[in-house]
Sequence to fold (118 residues):
Amino acid sequence: MRDLCAREAKDARARGAVALFCYQAKKWVGAYAAALGGLDTLVFAGGIGENAPLVCARICSGLGFLGLTLDRRRNARNAPLISSAASRVAVRVIPTNEELMIARSVTRVLNLAPSRRN
Fold:
């Protein structure tokens, strides 16, 4: 995503890929909000959530009808809470460590696997 965002000003395919990603994410947020009867909190996590405030802003754009309003300054500095004080929905950025979680899962699976020694 970092590479696509860096290239989208000059590359129509990169621009289209970022737009499609944001559209799909926004569509899923809307679908889940409908299924849940609204939102209390929207969480961005992982590499995009932590490092792509423009992508977070694009996903949230147009979701005001859910009571969601971003604070542009907070979002630009990747603050833990990026929603505005007036927002009815909290929008949070939560750091993750996917590599650590994958390593822990693999370790757990390997420890549970039956020994192959004879």
